[in-house]
Amino acid sequence: MLALTATAISATAAVAAGYQSMSPAGQWYGKTFTGNPRCSRQLAVTFDDGPNDPYTRRLLEVLAQHNIQATFFLIGDYVRQRPKIAREISDAGHTIGNHTCTHPLLIFKNENEIRRELLDCRSAIADAVGAHSNLFRPPFGGRRPAVLRVARELGFEPIMWRITGYDWNAPPAAEIERKISRRIRGGDVILLHDGGHKQLGVDRSQTILAADRLATRYKKEGFDFVTIPEMMAGLSKP
């Protein structure tokens, strides 16, 4: 009986540890930013896996129409292939963060590999746009203590999210919008994708349409769309 109990406890602990390594809200392995208090009227929309031609450029047009600045977590390999799009993101006033160079699941990488992924991505972004933020988002949200330790040693601020549109498989815009809208309370970091980690050219037209609809709706409701640095600093736009 004691052996069975010990086995059950070990299994439960393993499940909990695995959950914490992938859960965007998990804080066991170190503090990460997921948003501000729910009473806030701010929303920070973030886009992963770009730059991605032509969809990142189309998204930039939509954001400009709504006068919204967002936060883009870019893949270093894609930045090297599409540096002009990275510059367009920066020139439009959006914040650029680090999403590693090749988008691996970092919980299976050693510290040297983690460090190289972050440094190579930082170098690629710097070559394309110059100075940029110290924000870092782990691919798939996967992290363990070593991931966050290495990131902070390199001066990065880990950023997760509170709400996702589950758009990586390109569902219809209405579905993306519904999944986000049912969870918005304010102070939320929202995860969407302008690219895909497997290849360039992934169709993100439905995400772009959903972003357009969400911006229209929540600006009318009095929400303030801000970048991650602005949200972390508690800043609002005029």
Summarize the structure in short:
This protein is an alpha/beta fold and 238 residues long. It has helices at 2-22, 55-65, 76-81, 83-91, 111-129, 145-153, 173-181, 205-220, 228-233; strands at 42-50, 71-74, 95-98, 135-136, 157-158, 163-164, 188-193, 224-225. Mean pLDDT is 90; it is low at 4-19.
State the main characteristics.
238 residues; alpha/beta; TIM Barrel; two-stranded parallel ribbon; 8 strands
Description:
The chain has 238 residues and is of the alpha/beta class. Helices cover 45% and strands 13% of the residues. The chain has 9 helices and 8 strands. The protein has helices spanning 2-22, 55-65, 76-81, 83-91, 111-129, 145-153, 173-181, 205-220, 228-233; strands at 42-50, 71-74, 95-98, 135-136, 157-158, 163-164, 188-193, 224-225. Strand 6 (163-164), helix 7 and strand 7 form a beta-alpha-beta unit. The longest helix has 21 residues, at 2-22.
Radius of gyration: 18 Å
Within CATH, the superfamily carries the name: Glycoside hydrolase/deacetylase
* Tally of helical runs: 9
Largest sheet data? 6 strands, parallel
CATH topology annotation: TIM Barrel
* Structural domain tally: 1
Judged by helices, strands and strand pairing, the structural class is: alpha/beta
User: How large a portion of the residues is in β-strands, by DSSP E?
Assistant: 5-15%
The SSE string, one letter per element, is HEHEHHEHEHEEHEHEH
Set out the fold topology.
Layout: H1 2-22, E1 42-50, H2 55-65, E2 71-74, H3 76-81, H4 83-91, E3 95-98, H5 111-129, E4 135-136, H6 145-153, E5 157-158, E6 163-164, H7 173-181, E7 188-193, H8 205-220, E8 224-225, H9 228-233
